[in-house]
Amino acid sequence: MIRRLLERRRYMREHRWTHAHLSEYLNEDLSADERERVEDHVSICPHCRRVLRTLRRTVESLVDLRAEGRPGLAEGVIERLRRGY
Hints:
It is built from 5 helices and no strands.
């Protein structure tokens, strides 16, 4: 019972740390050890995996919008949001 409690506390500590560092992970601003720490947790945590996937898609969509560089950018953003991107 104590072992399970300690495992749960460690999991939650890693969960909070990982969640706080997902942007830095995507920006490649973490050390190799920190990147491994994020990857280890994401491999077992469906919530963090979803958040990372969503954050990655958001960043990619924003980069795509910037690359388009056309007038009416706000309308493009609204249209993409309506389509679910």
